[in-house]
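Aim 2, interim progress: modelling of the manganese (II) ion-bound target.
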Amino acid sequence: LVSRKKQAENTVVDLKGTLVGNGTPVIVAGPCSVESEEQVFAVARSLKEQGVRLMRGGAFKPRTSPYDFQGLGEEGLKILRRAADEYDLIVVSEIVNPGDMEMAEQYVDVIQIGARNMQNFELLKAAGSVRTPVLLKRGLSATMEEFLFAAEYIVSRGNTQVMLCERGIRTYEKWTRNTLDISAVPILKNESHLPVFVDITHSTGRRDILLPCAKAALAAGADGIMLEVHPNPAVALSDAKQQIDIPSFETFMKDLRASNLMG
Ligand code: PEP
Ligand code: MN
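Predicted structure of the complex, ligand included:
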């Protein structure tokens, strides 16, 4: 169902009037984790100013260590919703528990399935059973075929509003957190009609190469870019080393717009 052979035209996902997959790239930005109302509102204000409509923020955090901050849960989703309603934004947030899908639909506009859960088949089935659009991230060592089959799990349950997200894969290279597989973009665009995002923050884990990686992703045909923005990255409760602050985000947006890759 997700194959180009089944459907030649691009799937265009309509997020309250913002179209994803129609040729004009979109940006999704926001903190790694929702930490407080103040933090989310500060980011939301900047997104609004920049004309960026999609806001991310994790309320359920799949952390590598069980001792790390696990997220605010439903309270975090409520904070995202309040900020989004205030600034007319779209909420993108990760859900990790199949039983939370219906609860999440009250607050989020896009359900994110994280890399670590790409092959959590019960979660994929649950995401396929609701009608909220889904952003599915590529697993840490998933092949293209595994990635597309994961999307197929969701679409085959009836939720056709699926967006794919390349977020870097595990390799031996240590100078980046993961290896951004830029070739995934044209391959996914050729093989599937679903929109394709590139998460430049988790793939690189470095603030200094976000702009060239975003340009590469857009030049390769990506429909959207994801990045992490935090009002004070140094004190962030997760991914403190890779998030950018609000002035850097504003510079990033200005430079990306100047590249003429934003349509
Ligand atoms: C995230 O986007 O918040 C995240 C945890 O990313 P990933 O699932 O790609 O590691
Ligand atoms: Mn993160």
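The chain is about 35% helix and 15% strand. Residues 13-258 form a domain with the TIM Barrel fold (CATH 3.20.20.70).
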